[in-house]
Amino acid sequence: MKKNILKATIVAAFALIAGMNVYNAQKSDVMSELALANVEALASGEGSISDCETYCKSDSRYDCIISWGDGIEGITCTDHRKK
Amino acid sequence: MELINQMKKNYIFVICLFLLSVSCSKVERYDAAELFDFDTFVKIEELKGRILEFDSMIMRPNGIRVYDSLLVLIEPRSEKLVHVFNLNTRKKIASALSFGQGPDDMLQPKLMTNDSHTFQLFDRSSSRIFEYNMAAFVESQNPKPMRRLKLSVPVFISAEQVGDCIWGYSHQVEHQLYAFDSGDGKKTGEIIGYPNNNISYTDTEKLDAYYMNFTSNGMNKFAICYCMTDLIEFYDFNGNLHKRIYGPEQFFAHFKEYHDGEIISSSPDKETTRDAYFSPCNAGDCLMVMYDGGYVNDPDHTGLCSWIFSFSWNGVPNIAYKLDNPLLFMTVDSQHRKIYGISNAPEYHIVEYSF
User: Fold this and answer.
1) Nearest partner of B175 among B161, B162, B189, judged by Cα
2) Considering only CB atoms, which chain B residues are within 8 Å of A29?
3) How far off is chain B from A7, nearest CA to CA, in Å?
4) How close A83 gets to chain B, by Cα (Å)?
5) Cys staple from B156: which of B5, B81, B171, B313, with CB 3.0 to 4.6 Å?
6) What is the ipTM of this complex?
């Protein structure tokens, strides 16, 4: 009985370690575009990521600034230009 | 005889009409701009690039600088934002700075022009400047900045050390730049107005049409290179215009303002919009800048620049370099007379040119 419990514990431990390894391997070094845009939008205070796609288009040489109201508030969509 | 007189009168009438139409037509021009074209350059030289291969893959960098034998890349979509490569061994020697909002993290870093000992980054999302010791930066897994400087008002796109001040992109209608005290980050003034021309822009259109990058020679001159009109302006450190040069193809940026609820924006004219100058660099005794010239709506437009122009800091066209491997971004090592650039065709890679 004790032997069985020990075996089960060892198997469970190996499964746990293997699972963690698979999880770590799957974690990509590259952040998704969505995650990047989300944090950028949040950091800017206002606006949303969809605004970047609505009013700007992708171009890594530009930053696209979208303004509200009197132009004082806005967000910066990096690597985008006005479209 | 009468017939001849009538014909003369007709000729004079036609000539007058022509002169009237020419004088009344609206010719777009910049005030006080010196025109130049490709023939103005002292010479046109073809450069052959060498692709540099490293032990680690280049992802999608949007910033590049060289400090002696170290190549620094900004990788905005990676977990670590700054990657340092040794140009001699071609090995990656450091990856640092996390994407985030912690005290030492950044969201939108941009490389500033630096000397070889210090290394400055400007975080566009927080308008903060971080200064590092280059040696310590390479050695540590989690480098701590020697100095953090928060600019007192928001700055967009870029900031640079200019003499004893820091100048930052204002995105305001009256002046293009803010000046800050480099000691405490407090705003000390607003400088450099927009170029005068006879196109009537709304405020929003003007801000979009005059999108620019800037750099200084570190001593007494400062250059603004516009991205959608082929215009370059040279200023002194007091913000006085020294020279405005317009070329080599002389095109303007045309935008049309629109409102969408609270949003105020403008769209570039689809037919006429072209890309102009990018990545201005201090190359010691000259300014070097990439030139595109392509129409944005052209299906073949890649966003890669096939030309690098060099100008004296007095604004005189010097050499036009034609590249065999066009670039997105570049940096210049004036001491070793090398240009390092980022290309994305067909995949992202680093190119080295000797000049």
Assistant:
1) B189
2) 78-79
3) 39
4) 5
5) B171
6) 0.86
